Amino acid sequence: MNLKNDLILRAARGENIERYPVWLMRQAGRILPEYRTVRASLSGFKELVETPEKAAEVTVQPVDLLGVDAAIIFSDILVVPEAMGLEYQMVESKGPYFEKTIKTEDDLKYAEFNFDVEDRLSYVLEAIRITNKELNGRVPLIGFAGAPWTILCYMIEGQGSKTFSKARKILYQNPTLAHDLLNRITEVTIQYLKAQVKAGAHMLQVFDSWAGILGTEQYAEFGLKYLDRIAREVNEVPLTLFSKGAFTSVEAIARLDCNTVGVDWNMDIATIRKNIGETRTLQGNLDPCALYASHAEVERLTNNMLNSFSSKRHIVNLGHGVYPDIDPEKVRTFIQTVKNYELK
Amino acid sequence: MNLKNDLILRAARGENIERYPVWLMRQAGRILPEYRTVRASLSGFKELVETPEKAAEVTVQPVDLLGVDAAIIFSDILVVPEAMGLEYQMVESKGPYFEKTIKTEDDLKYAEFNFDVEDRLSYVLEAIRITNKELNGRVPLIGFAGAPWTILCYMIEGQGSKTFSKARKILYQNPTLAHDLLNRITEVTIQYLKAQVKAGAHMLQVFDSWAGILGTEQYAEFGLKYLDRIAREVNEVPLTLFSKGAFTSVEAIARLDCNTVGVDWNMDIATIRKNIGETRTLQGNLDPCALYASHAEVERLTNNMLNSFSSKRHIVNLGHGVYPDIDPEKVRTFIQTVKNYELK
User: Fold this and answer.
1) How do beta strands B314-318 and B281-286 pair?
2) Quick check: A330 and A298 in contact, CB under 8 A?
3) B2 in any annotated domain
4) Which of A3, B79, B111, B317 reaches 20 to 30 Å from A299, CA-CA?
5) What are the pLDDT digits (tens) for B234-278?
């Protein structure tokens, strides 16, 4: 199917664009009343993720309602550890919780790593197919997965953490187990990302949400090494790597075989551009809290950010997922400001 | 009283030292069984903080039991907002919780800012006096306070947060209120730090635990501006500024009128040294999780860190507070490795 709007794909590849493409992490979600209606008709977050028609419906909503230049499949990075046998619950206002965790070789019995990924995660792939039918080529659809290090964090900790000290402890006490797990997670993740492309994803993003809790050397060893393998093996569509908080590793990430590097709101785009040159597209990075400001101020802050771009290799986004209590009208102002911005 | 060991003060001032001084953030605390015994004899964390004899007792413990080169008064940064009228509870395994928070000008009625700091926080000052008597000049005593930005975060949010989006929202929606509060907090903090020196603190540290959630420009406006005032006005004893996660602001912090800059474990000491030159002492920065490793590995990792120092302007510490489940024997290995290290 021909895409009517392929702006984001061209920006990712470093091709010419007429204006900057724009979308928001977590655009399909609680900011939209229309999402909350769908969500309220179901038993919870997980039922929404696991019901392809409904997941597709909320994936398309921000395209219709906000006018973003891409859809991102409504899902969760934790579907991967769950497919491995570690079931999770999404606890309201607390986040994910896994009953079984892996802390020793013996705990490996809780998880399996050789399974038919397309079969076990068929509900995500089906949601991708339905979404593309409903989008009918209006915008590209982004598939995604968690980075191996971030998935490992959840598999060890079983939930979020301020310090992720249990996960990091294993890097010191049993690096062999950590690498063994990271290898297995990477294998499954590569299969999963390729399956999403086969199902119709036009672009992929890998989220390394807990990159920032590792020092530079440990992130190279336990994080980048596996992102590198993913980037080399998954090359069917443009790939974005977003390692949140990895301040000292941005240049190393930009050397991986990806198209786009995601940028946190508290990193400086101009500095990063200076350091990495024009080799990669940057995605980001308005502070999600900027959308709490007045409309005039949202416009000013967005234009400030756009003015700091020195080339066309940019995909506009927030520097983190949009917060659930943001007024959708402010999101519209943000998007409209990007669309009105004249590219020199 | 003459100090028998003033190594840390000389290191802070950039004077000559025979070996690197070493202490640990949170050294007085749950890692020591002797601390847990004292704690168990009381109703909870707050009673310990508010009972000068007991606070002094646990402050001295790591000097006796671990052989650190400095004591740090056992207290909490939240005694300051509490002195302002915002009482907090320390909820087991969850952290602090404030019933009353400040989100609008109207909420200012919950707090007062003109009060006798020495009177209201007399229990901390008394603990400092008792500690010094018990230390009898063995090592210097460090006093501390939270940075205005971090205290503001707690006053607005009322508890910890992953995003501190309520606090950051106010920076966009009502910067005037934010600055007003930051000014008032700064005033009280300066009085409090000076009172600690008068009571006997030989050195001071200001903790900006939530520095890292602000972008560079916002941290300059809402964080550094107030640290600058503290650094200029509090100059009786050496001052350490520790802005956790402020990757892009380290050079700006080093330009403030402080002696020592605290360094996170995921920052690179060699890079920071290159950027700031020999103008300031650096404090840090072993990964607290490194103490989960074997004794031999703790020794190796500690020596690696020490080898990365290119000058004598260093105070050795972890890059964050020691985790409560760390084996005290590992802490002793860390400390002994630093003490054995031959300074060139």
Assistant:
1) parallel
2) yes
3) no
4) A3
5) 999 999 999 999 999 999 999 999 999 999 999 999 999 999 999
Of the candidates A55, A226, A262, A255, the one whose C-alpha atom is nearest the C-alpha of residue A153 is A226
pLDDT average, residue stretch B200-227:
97
The answer for B 323-342 residues in CB contact with A (under 8 A) is 323
Half-sphere exposure of B225 (CA within 13 A, CB side): 14
Residue B125 amino acid letter: L
Tell me the residue range of the domain where B235 lies.
7-340
Q: Does A272 touch chain B (CB under 8 A)?
A: no
Interchain CB contact of B97 with A (< 8 Å)? no
Instruction: Report yes or no on A1 lying in a domain.
Output: no
**Percentages of chain A per state (helix, strand, coil), in multiples of 5:** 50, 10, 35
Residue B248 is classified by DSSP as G
Cβ density class A138-166: b for 16+ within 10 Å, e for less = bbbbbbbbbbbbbbbbbbbbbeebeebbb
A238 lies in some domain: yes
What span, in angstroms and rounded, lies between the C-alpha atoms of B164 and B75?
Answer: 23
* Count: domains in chain B: 1
> Which has the closest alpha carbon to A155: A191, A119, A186, A123?
A186
CATH classification of the domain holding B252? 3.20.20.210
The residue from B20, B35, B88, B154 that is catalytic is B154
Q: Tell whether B168 is within 8 A of chain A (Cβ).
A: yes
Q: How many degrees, rounded to 5, is the angle at CA A136 between CA A130 and CA A139? A: 100
Inter-chain touch B173–A292, beta carbons under 8 Å: yes
* List B13, B30, B36, B300, catalytic entry: B30
Contact yes or no for B11/B314 (Cβ under 8 A): yes
How many residue pairs bridge chain A and chain B with CB atoms within 8 Å of each other?
Answer: 77
Confidence of residue B29 (pLDDT cuts 50, 70, 90): very high
The predicted pLDDT at position A162 comes to: 86
Which candidate, A56, A73, A243, A68, places its Cα nearest to that of A143? Answer: A73
Whether cis (ω within 30° of 0) applies to the bond prior to A285 is yes
Torsion of CA A319, A321, A324, A328, to 10 degrees: 70
ipTM: 0.93
Q: Is the pTM of this model over 0.90?
A: yes
Site of tokens 């995605």: A283
